[in-house]
Amino acid sequence: MPRTKNKQKKLHVRKGDMVRVIAGNEKGKEGKILVVFPEKERVIVEGVNVRIRHTRPNKVYPEGGRIEREMPIHVSNVMPLDSNGEPTRVGRKRIEDPETGRGRWIRYAKTTGEELDR
Predict the structure, then answer these.
(1) How much of the chain, in percent, has pLDDT values that exceed 90?
(2) Residue 113 region, left (φ>0) first, then alpha (ψ -120 to 50), else beta?
(3) pLDDT digit string, tens, across residues 59-99
(4) How far apart are CA 48 and CA 25, in angstroms?
(5) What distance lies between CA 98 and its chain's CA centroid?
(6) Does 116 fall in a domain?
């Protein structure tokens, strides 16, 4: 059943999460998520999928030339790491905030049960 009220994509990873790549040419590498593109379901992971980009001279690169940059990979190819450093599936549960009395959704690691959100 498609979403009718909240149309935003729910991803199992967020910016700043430590993840391990589980599929593709970079399988087994670990890094921190730098950027998340929820509409495209892609993420940029630090040190993963590094490609050479040819650029013209500009203010940032006065010489121009060949620049190595991380490129996006699909979000299904990464898994967050738990406190033991092992990849884990992600669950969601609703908790009550003691200060405000309002509920909020948090992510937790299926392997250890610990909360992934701060």
Answers:
(1) 80
(2) left
(3) 999 999 999 999 999 999 999 999 999 999 999 999 998 88
(4) 10
(5) 28
(6) no
Full domain range(s) for residue 54: 18-86
Whole-prediction pTM value? 0.83
What mean pLDDT do residues 47-65 have? 95
Token duo for residue 68: 């190595």
Q: Pairing between strand 42-45 and 103-109?
A: unpaired
Question: Domains in the chain: how many in total?
Answer: 1
The tokens of 9 are what? Answer: 């994509």
| Residue 1, pLDDT score | 64
Residue 39, domain member (yes or no): yes
Rounded to 5°, the CA angle 91-71-10 comes to: 25
> Which region, left, alpha or beta, applies to residue 85 given φ > 0 means left and ψ of -120 to 50 means alpha?
left
CATH of the domain at 62: 2.30.30.30
Q: Are 11 and 76 in contact (CB under 8 A)?
A: no
At residue 76's C-alpha, the angle toward residues 115 and 82, to 5°, is: 25
Q: What is the mean pLDDT of residues 11-16?
A: 94
